[in-house]
Specification:
The chain has 323 residues and is mostly helical. It contains 16 helices and no strands. Helix 6 runs parallel beside helix 10, helix 10 crosses helix 12 and helix 13 crosses helix 15. The protein is globular, with a radius of gyration of 27 Å.
């Protein structure tokens, strides 16, 4: 029987015996070195253009002066945040941003899924390729061209007014881009046309990953196309749908400014002006850098909070989450 000292020596030697040599731990890294080299440019891009500029967010807490620089400008605390919260524009901007993004989410998100499901049911490959190509094209058209088309189509003598008058819906042409009540419809509708085909790609990829034997077993059991869709296809892509839904909720207050800037005017500010366009006007056109940085930082914090909440809800209710 071993003595207590010998048992202690054996116990203390076990961790050293289990410890892997440095070379064996480096083997996966060496074996996948080319993959890591391919990843390096992406990492550098995010470090240089995404993470490094974050230090500039401190101007939201300063009275920034370009001549003094970021660090030498005097501290202002939460003054600029308070100015924004107490301003006349606060609730209007928050409402417009949320509604614009929410309408886009409830229209474009399910439309992309539906379009992918319909494409998946097409069995004629040539026809399917043509439909996919046509649906992808709007994504590659320049935004300037898209906005120019929207302006031309919605003019009093444009194609939309012409069609509505031809079928008797309206008697007089409508100035769509001057009326505030039409702006959100135009924004969401054009966004649907631009992105529904492109967004469907990831769902088509998820559909291709479903095991074909499941459909074969369903056919043997007498399930039709509709039951196969309900019990196999939709559950098969649901993890992908949930992940993308979480990401979309995380950008709920992140409406892009470029398209709105090109389409809106002072007459439609009541429904078209969002946080990003307000930041653009105050920061670039009026050079109020600290105030616009405070508004942008507030927007980012809200988006991050929504992302965390959506991920937690998804993790508790389903098995899909970002982390």
């Amino acid at each position: 029987m071993a003595s207590p000292t010998e048992v202690e020596k054996i116990g203390s030697a076990k961790p050293a015996m289990r410890k892997k040599p440095m070379l064996s731990r480096m083997k996966p890294l060496i074996a996948n070195r080319y993959l890591y080299l391919m990843l390096l440019p992406v990492i550098l891009y995010f470090i240089i253009f995404e993470y490094k500029p974050m230090y500039g967010a401190i101007i939201a807490f300063k009275d920034f002066n370009p001549y003094q620089g970021i660090w030498d400008s005097p501290w202002a605390g939460f003054k600029h945040f308070q100015r924004f919260f107490e301003s006349y524009y606060f609730w209007r901007l928050l409402k417009n941003t949320f509604l614009m993004s929410f309408y886009s989410l409830i229209v474009i998100f399910p439309a992309s899924i539906t379009f992918a499901l319909l494409l998946n049911e097409i069995r004629i490959k040539a026809f399917k390729s043509v439909v996919q190509t046509i649906s992808y094209l709007p994504h590659f058209i320049s935004l300037i061209v898209i906005c120019g088309m929207i302006i031309d189509f919605t003019k009093p003598d444009g194609i939309i007014n012409g069609m509505l008058q031809a079928i008797g819906v309206i008697q007089e042409p409508i100035q769509f881009l001057i009326l505030p009540e039409w702006f959100r419809t135009i924004y969401v509708g054009s966004g649907l046309w631009q992105s529904v085909g492109w967004n469907s790609i990831i769902y088509l990829a998820a559909l291709s990953g479903i095991n074909p034997s499941l459909y074969e077993a369903a056919v043997v059991d007498g399930a039709g196309r509709w039951k196969q869709l309900i019990h196999i296809t939709i559950p098969g892509i649901m993890p992908t749908v949930l992940i993308l839904l979480i990401l979309n909720v995380g950008t709920l207050l992140n409406v892009g400014w470029d398209k709105i800037i090109l389409l809106y005017n002072p007459a439609t500010y009541d429904t078209a002006d969002v946080i990003s366009t307000f930041v653009y006007r105050r920061g670039i056109m009026e050079a109020d850098y600290s105030f616009s940085a405070a508004v942008g930082l507030f927007n980012s914090v809200i988006n991050f909070s929504l992302l965390v909440i959506a991920n937690r809800i998804s993790r508790k209710t389903t098995e899909s989450s970002l982390w």
